[in-house]
Amino acid sequence: MRLDKFLKVSRIIKRRTVAKEACDKGIVTINGKQAKSSSEVNMGDVLEITFGEKIMKFKITEIKEHVLKAEAKEMYEIIE
């Protein structure tokens, strides 16, 4: 699944266009490498997103095309 779509479906970022902009600005990394919005994500990958001065790390535990709001948090695990 594309990174921008995963961020939207998992509701880490609310809109796909905002997720794409975040990737283009270089604030999203996959396994320590700067990621493009078109980068593929897999289960077990670690995403790092910089929100202002706060850095959040997520481990992908599940990938689904469509998910309900209540189930979205099951797609990732917050590491930091």
Automatic annotation (TrEMBL):
Belongs to the RqcP family. Keywords: Protein biosynthesis, RNA-binding, rRNA-binding, tRNA-binding. The keyword rRNA-binding applies. CDD domains: S4. Pfam families: S4. Associates with stalled 50S ribosomal subunits. Binds to RqcH, 23S rRNA and the P-site tRNA. Does not require RqcH for association with 50S subunits. Key component of the ribosome quality control system (RQC), a ribosome-associated complex that mediates the extraction of incompletely synthesized nascent chains from stalled ribosomes and their subsequent degradation. RqcH recruits Ala-charged tRNA, and with RqcP directs the elongation of stalled nascent chains on 50S ribosomal subunits, leading to non-templated C-terminal alanine extensions (Ala tail). The Ala tail promotes nascent chain degradation. RqcP is associated with the translocation-like movement of the peptidyl-tRNA from the A-site into the P-site. This is RQC P-site tRNA stabilizing factor. SUPFAM superfamilies: Alpha-L RNA-binding motif. InterPro entries: RqcP, S4_RNA-bd, S4_RNA-bd_sf. The gene is rqcP. Residues 1-64 form the RNA-binding S4 domain.
